[in-house]
Amino acid sequence: MRLTCLVDDSSGISNPFLSISKIPGNFLAEHGLSLLVETDQGKRVLLDAGSSEGTFVHNLNLLGLRPKDIDLVFISHGHYDHLGALPLLLREGIPVHTHPLTFQGRRFVEASGVRKEIGPSDELLSLLKEHPPSYDDRPKELANGVSTTGEVFRRTDFERPSSFHREQNGELVPDLVMEEQALCLSTRHGLVVLTGCGHPGVVNILSQVRMHTGRKLLMAAGGFHLGKADANLLLRTVDGMKQAGLEKVAPMHCTGFAATKLFSDRFPGFLLLGAGCSMEL
Ligand SMILES: [Fe+2]
Ligand SMILES: [Fe+2]
């Protein structure tokens, strides 16, 4: 199985000592995430679609691929920075799988007293009526060795998103982003867990995977949403991830600099994967 970072907040470099190769070409970076999984049987499953069609298509072309070469799109949650190329993929007729709440209600984030809309665009919402995704909040196998976690149960008391709101019956209510699911990849050496933004809390996500599968966790990669985390949250998250038995971590996207630095200090298996980086799992 092969994992390639298609869109991320940074553009990557190769590291032959860590078996990370960099596909030739100038990959663009933007605030968003899209990860491509290629199974041993040749199925291409995409986790999320970056935040803009232009960056997505530019980077995909550098892989020698076109949108129609993707077999299935899994959308982790309903924030714009994971939905950018989804209209294009829907128009191409690529099947989409996600949680039933992903496209429900307008979504907002508040920072420094400013409210910003961060949900799906009107264009995307109208395309979804013509090309309905398959919805499931339970774990589901999407391809051989590629499964969703199902809705993530909140177990820890320190991982609580507080800045998000969603529209419900005409009112704004706090949004725990309950729709966010992660992907589990089954490899010879253990499970690889891919997170979109990690809003449920990465420790909660890993606990869910361990309880459902009972299998060894090899690696967590993706957005861990720790950019505004205080020291307590950072340290408890790193401790929780170490207790989960991970050998490797690849923080990306919204993880934040301080958290990424802490992961690099605390995990011998720290990996830096930016857009264009690829590794065999
Ligand atoms: Fe995100
Ligand atoms: Fe998000």
Account of the 3D structure:
The protein is α/β, with parallel strands linked by helices and 281 residues long. The protein has one domain (2-280): Ribonuclease Z/Hydroxyacylglutathione hydrolase-like (Metallo-beta-lactamase, Chain A, 4-Layer Sandwich). The chain has 6 helices and 18 strands. The chain has helices at 53-62, 86-91, 122-130, 202-213, 231-243, 257-266; strands at 2-7, 21-22, 34-38, 44-47, 72-74, 96-98, 107-111, 114-117, 134-135, 141-143, 146-148, 164-168, 171-174, 183-187, 190-195, 217-223, 248-252, 277-280. The strands form 3 sheets. Strands 2-18-1-3-4-5-6-9 form an 8-stranded mixed sheet. A hairpin with a 2-residue loop joins strand 7 and strand 8 (114-117). The longest helix has 13 residues, at 231-243. Bound molecules: fe (ii) ion (2 copies).
CATH class reads: Alpha Beta
Shape, per Cα inertia axes:
globular
From N to C, what is the helix and strand string?
A: EEEEHEHEEEHEEEEEEEHEHEHE
Provide the gyration radius in Å. Answer: 17 Å
The CATH homologous superfamily corresponds to Ribonuclease Z/Hydroxyacylglutathione hydrolase-like
Task: Tally the helices.
Answer: 6
pLDDT < 50 runs, ≥5 residues: none
Reported by name, the CATH topology is: Metallo-beta-lactamase, Chain A
Query: Distance between the terminal alpha carbons, to the nearest Å?
Result: 5 Å
> Into which percent range does the helicity of residues fall?
10-25%
Measured by DSSP, the beta-strand proportion falls in: 25-35%
**Mean pLDDT rating:** 96
Annotation, overall tally of beta strands: 18
Widest sheet, order of strands = 2-18-1-3-4-5-6-9
